[in-house]
Specification:
By secondary structure, this protein is an alpha+beta fold. It has a domain at 113-170 and 185-248. The chain has helices at residues 5-19, 60-69, 113-121, 128-137, 154-162, 238-257, and strands at residues 53-57, 76-80, 85-89, 103-108, 126-127, 142-145, 151-152, 164-176, 181-193, 200-205, 214-223, 230-235, 262-265. The strands form 3 sheets. Strands 5-12-11-10-6-7 form a 6-stranded antiparallel beta sheet. Strands 1-4-3-2-13 form a 5-stranded mixed beta sheet, with helices on one face. Helix 4 runs antiparallel to helix 5. 18% of the residues are buried.
Length: 271
């Protein structure tokens, strides 16, 4: 009786599978038939082989409480200050006894509505109405100061923005002699208001839940290059203040987590 090619291959694979031959490697490996499948029976058990999963939250307080509750000897946390997030791996293990790193807690701070609003408006060219509407919408967070450092009410600041006028003037000088003639011209554009324009706006805000209040100083500029005046707000010392907020985030995290996990700056890829 002759055997087909498929039958011969099946006999060969079955023989190899029965032998379970070990191969020299850094970790355990065996020769297995090509068409055999490995089936995970965990889903048919009463419980899982081990605890794993990802807890995600925007709440710094809840994140800290969860990490403390799930404290593990080799838990490690990685803080990304650029995006105000933290990932704690409870079963990362050690170089000598590595874990699966699939039991984790993830914190992503969400900017408050007021902080998102002030970030969105900075550097934007706004028409008079758009700027006055923005100041009116967020008046409870704002205090205004004129060019001399004197405080002014938000109502006056809004009125000043709404009543800006632009004046353009030209000046020419002419000089004539018997051998030559010269002329110079100078144009000037000036923006003014019936009310005193605010020079700075101080915006008080808690940028993220769990962090302290910040005062963001905004410089008010009027741009007269177009047919209509536009206004811009510039965040003074933005980079330094953002860095201070990030440092506070790390300090608050350390106080919430305590000894439940070792925290470091950076990110970690567990693949």
């Amino acid at each position: 009786m002759s055997l087909t090619k498929e039958a011969l291959e099946l006999i060969q694979e079955t023989t190899i599978a029965a032998a379970g031959r070990d191969l020299p490697a850094l970790g355990p490996v065996v020769v297995v038939p090509q068409h055999f499948n490995v089936v995970d029976l965990e889903r048919y058990q009463e419980g899982r082989n081990r605890f794993r999963g990802t807890y995600s939250t925007h709440s710094l307080a809840d994140f800290g409480a969860y990490v403390v509750e799930r404290a593990a000897p080799d838990a490690r946390g990685f803080i990304d200050q650029d995006v105000m997030s933290c990932v704690v791996l409870f079963n990362l293990g050690t170089p000598n006894h590595p874990g699966h790193a699939d039991d984790r807690a993830v914190l992503r701070l969400k900017a408050s509505a007021a902080f998102a609003a002030v970030q969105a408006v900075c550097g934007q060219a706004l028409a008079q109405k758009a700027m006055s509407d923005w100041i009116e919408d967020w008046h409870q967070h704002l205090t205004a100061t004129d060019e001399n450092g004197a405080g002014m009410s938000i109502a006056k600041a809004i009125a000043a923005v709404r009543t800006i006028t632009v004046k353009a003037s030209s000046e020419s000088d002419h000089a004539v002699s018997e051998t030559r003639a010269s002329r110079s011209a100078m144009d000037s554009i000036e923006a003014s208001s019936k009310e005193t324009l605010p020079a700075w706006l101080d915006f008080k805000v808690i940028p993220f839940e769990g962090l302290s209040e910040q005062v963001i100083r905004l410089r008010v500029s009027v741009i007269t290059s177009g047919s209509q005046p536009v206004l811009k707000l510039r965040w003074l010392g933005e980079e330094a203040q953002r860095e201070a907020i990030a440092q506070e985030f790390k300090q608050v995290l350390e106080s919430k987590v305590g000894n439940a996990a070792k925290l470091v700056l950076g990110s970690f890829d567990s693949k």
